[in-house]
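Fold it.
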Amino acid sequence: MRNPLIVNIQKYSIHDGDGIRTTVFFKGCMLNCWWCHNPESQNYTPELMFNQEQCKGCGYCEKNCPYGAIVISREGVALTDGDKCHLCGTCLDYCPYHNREIVGKEYTIEELMKIINKDACFYEESGGGVTLSGGEVMTQDMDYLEELCRCLKERDYHVNIDTCGYAPTGNFERLLPYVNTFLYDIKTLDNQIHMKYMGKSNDLILTNLEYLADHCADINIRIPVVEPVNSDEDSMNQIMVYLKERIGIVKVNLLPYHNMGSSKYEKLGRMYPAMELGTPSKEHMEKLKAMFEAQGFINVKIGG
């Protein structure tokens, strides 16, 4: 069993299922969605995040880096050579402005359960529980995840898994007995568009969704609505028809695109690929919601 990397443990979450929840964000995902608002969770290895805008060029990190990976530029900004950096964390200790962070930390199941158990009273009072998210939780070490989910169910915690669906079908089979609800993303049924904006085919994603439906899993479909990727009526109609014919009348969340995670890309030293993408208007989102309801979907929500 290998302890996976976790980038965040978010307490008192109200957006990852019913009630008050603790959401655990695992690190690593096989997709590369242009608008991903957690880019620090895409890679399966630890990464350095650096707030360049707040750097004062004091030089403490440069002087104390044991590998000579940091230099102060002419503009007075600390630059890190990724080939030399060993992610040892020394620069974090010497930055007086706390501009540096290493994302990705291993937790044993015992350590994680100790944190989760502290909020047990909130789960019981609110009808909440624990949500495993990412990154992509379904591509992590499955021995670890199965044991974690078993521990959660032993405590009678409501367990959600937030997934993009791109993982081996056998992984879903292993966790199905322990999971109350799958928060399942669908971006588009057009495979070429999926390849362009997500970097992978949607074939496996649909296969796994159908597997869950065939095994009577509770499914909450979540659709990020992004202009011009999938916000048109034809794209949404395709999804509606597919859900009705193959999955059933399930809960649907329509999630309007936002760029609130764009600043993270700069901290990771990456370009934000979704600069030209747009947010649909409130009126358009209401129209899409009405379209789903007209097709018999009785539990449709914007956001969440």
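The chain has a mean pLDDT of 96.
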